[in-house]
From TrEMBL:
GO biological process terms on file: glycine betaine transport; transmembrane transport
Signal sequence region: none
Protein location: Cell membrane
UniProt keyword terms in alphabetical order: Membrane, Transmembrane, Transmembrane helix, Transport
Family: Belongs to the binding-protein-dependent transport system permease family.
Transmembrane segments: 46-66, 71-90, 110-127, 134-156, 176-200, 212-237, 257-278, 299-319, 325-345, 352-371
Protein name: ABC transporter permease subunit
Length: 386
């Protein structure tokens, strides 16, 4: 029997081999800000577990390089990610001296490379299997449930990022709420404004070019610059408009961040509304006219339902974008996970940076998967345009 080589598998295997055998698995630091000491797998884990992990990686590399069944690759990727998640928690207990509350243990480049390699293997297997949207959402829920179980079990309590969280738990959830409100609130406002504006641009061609050009110009302004530009006008409004300050409008804080995210959100919503409505088959409109539907009935009964998957794609782009951009709002007092990112940079505490960065990435990843699934489900409904 001829052995077949998987080309992507060769790349994944190379990343995995470097991460496991050449790069450090964990970093040990005497306290939160001093430089760390890199520890390879055999030093970072108890001897039996370290050797077992290296053997597991060696077997995995062989299976990844060869054209093995796709389901086997998916199971291998998921199982390996679970193993790495458990072992990095064990490494913290192994490396930290007893009763030492100052020492810090964090994942090193080898752990991140190995995790990335197995995540890439999992993503490739899922792309080949093409599971239904609801299955992908269920898999996402299972991943988050597994992470929650590890957190609740205390398996990661020894890791430095959890120690940073332990001293900031109340603040963390407060900033998490602000981050979600900024991202979802600006999306809701942009949808309420962008949908009618997109319909207007679709119906009135003379308006379309001007509106889209203005929104394109806004997109070219760097986020931190746009935040800064909004401070002066919003500060003036807070001082001179009665009641403005009482409802939260100020030169710094959440108001300029919200307005900036709203402005950034308009282009994808408006543009996708225009594209979606333009893609409605002429036959569908002709048939609607033929049965006596008014313009309003055609818009809400035919055009918008058929354009909905394209519009939802724009909303997905906006939500993922806003989750990331909301991090920068911390620079002008807007709150969110960016508070921990910029505090960590200022204190040279990278684990504090991760406390803000990791949940931001997780939120964006989850939002993308859920809205992708929603888009596919809306496309698959009977009567949708191809």
């Amino acid at each position: 029997m001829t052995l077949r080589i998987d080309k992507l598998g060769v790349v994944i295997a190379a990343l995995l081999a470097y991460g496991a055998y050449l790069a450090p698995f964990a970093n040990f630091r005497a306290n939160r800000i001093v430089p760390g000491e890199a520890r390879p797998i055999l030093d970072a884990l108890p001897s039996g577990l370290g050797m077992a992990l290296l053997v597991f990686v060696a077997v995995s590399i062989v299976l990844i390089v060869l054209k093995t069944p796709t389901m086997l690759r998916l199971v291998l990727g998921l199982a390996a990610l679970c193993v790495l998640a458990v072992l990095i928690g064990l490494s913290a207990g192994h490396l930290t001296p007893p009763e030492n509350t100052y020492a810090r243990v964090s994942p090193a480049s080898g752990f991140w490379l190995a995790s990335f390699a197995f995540a890439l293997l999992t993503a490739d297997a899922l792309a080949r299997l093409k599971p239904p949207p609801l299955v992908r959402v269920a898999l996402l829920a299972a991943v988050f449930a597994a992470a929650a179980l590890l957190l609740l079990s205390g398996a990661w309590d020894g890791l430095s990022i959890l120690k940073e969280y332990g001293s900031r738990a109340e603040t963390f959830w407060l900033e998490a709420g602000r981050h979600v409100v900024l991202a979802l609130g600006s999306l809701a406002a942009a949808t309420l404004v962008g949908l009618p504006l997109g319909i207007l641009c679709h119906r009135v061609e003379r308006v379309r070019a001007g509106v889209l050009n203005v929104l394109n110009i806004i997109q070219t302004i760097p986020s931190i610059a746009l935040f800064g530009l909004l401070i002066a006008p919003l500060g003036w409004i807070a001082l001179h408009v009665p009641g403005a300050a009482a409802i939260g409008i100020r030169g710094i804080g959440a108001a300029p961040a919200f307005v900036a995210l709203f402005l950034y959100s308009l282009l994808p919503v408006v543009a996708n509304t225009v594209v979606g409505l333009a893609g409605v088959p002429r036959d569908a409109n002709d048939a609607a006219r033929g049965i006596g539907m008014t313009d309003r009935q055609r818009l809400f009964g035919v055009e918008l339902p058929l354009a909905f998957p394209v519009i939802l794609t724009g909303i997905r782009i906006v939500l993922v974008q806003n989750i990331g951009l909301a991090t920068i709002a911390a620079l002008i007092g807007g709150g969110g996970f960016g508070v921990f990112v910029f505090q960590g940079i200022g204190q040279t505490a990278m684990d504090l940076v991760l406390l803000g960065a990791v949940p931001t990435v997780a939120l964006a990843f989850a939002a993308a998967i859920v809205l992708d699934a929603a888009t596919e489900l809306s496309n698959s409904k009977p009567g949708r345009a191809a």
